[in-house]
Amino acid sequence: VKVKIPFGNKCLDAIFSVPEKKPTYGVILTHGAGGDMNFPHLVSLAAYLASHGVLCLRFTCKGLNVAYRAKAFKAVVEYLKLCDDYKLSGVFLAGRSMGSRAAASVIRQLSQGDDDDDGFIQGLVCLSYPLHRPKLQSKLRDEDLLLITCPVLFVSGSADEMCEKQLLEGVVSKMKAPKKIHWIDKANHGMAVKGRTADDVMEEVNAQVFSWLRENVQLQQK
User: How far is CA 52 from CA 21, 80, 106, 124, in A?
Assistant: First the structure.
């Protein structure tokens, strides 16, 4: 289902992937610095989640400024929260690369403000989180991650040139939030692995994301 989400004086293009049964949880998904919501990995993940009963709303927001992207993400969260068609108990924010930085920023902002005491945001999924620029390991983009308290899943390639394995593990060890990293062996920042098809890699990513979502929703229902 295609929708337009109001954002300032513009609208963001977005698509709902709707499960057959009425969903109780949703995922908001966005893309990296290049591309848009039709990036194959996002389409694949959205279809997988919807087929497993999770509503997925993916949106496009061009712009290379993280603060701007975070504002757009916030507008989408508000839209879904007030959306009469789908009454959700909670939502997970997810993004690929720069999109995951924007998602992390939104969660930090909302948790520091008073407007998310209702626990609508359940967690964060970071696909290929860009912890540093290529070859610039001294400057880590970890400030939002260290302040988040909701559960976080990282899915990263062990050969990601923007997220060195030891550095991410170091940041994660300092995080207050419940967290998990799933390493895709030998994958680069684009999740490409020599000798494996893109579909094969995405199957691994999708299954990991869904099982983590399920674990976290169950933990909260107990």
Answer: 9, 19, 26, 18
* Dihedral sign for Cα atoms in the order 140, 168, 30, 187: positive
Residue 152 lies in a domain: yes
Evaluate whether 112 touches 144 at the Cβ level (below 8 Å). Answer: no
Please give the Cα distance from 107 to 145 (Å, whole number).
9
Contact 114, 48 (CB under 8 A): no
Identify whether 51 is part of a domain.
Answer: no
Domain that residue 88 falls in: 64-219
The stretches of 82-161 forming alpha helices (DSSP H) are 98-112, 143-147
Number of structural domains (the chain) is 1
Report yes or no: 161 and 133 within 8 Å, Cβ to Cβ: no
- The CA distance from 50 to 170, in Å, is 34
Rounded CA gap, 210 and 108, in Å?
Answer: 23
The CATH number given to whatever domain includes residue 113 is 3.40.50.1820
Q: Is 179 helix (H, G, I), strand (E, B) or coil?
A: strand
Q: What is the pLDDT along the chain (222 residues), one digit of tens a residue?
A: 899 999 989 999 999 999 999 889 999 999 999 889 999 999 999 999 999 999 999 999 988 888 999 999 999 999 999 888 888 989 999 999 999 999 999 999 887 765 545 688 999 999 999 999 998 888 999 999 999 999 999 999 999 999 999 999 999 999 999 999 999 999 999 999 999 999 999 999 999 999 999 999 876 665
- Rounded to whole angstroms, the Cα distance separating 94 from 153 reads 9
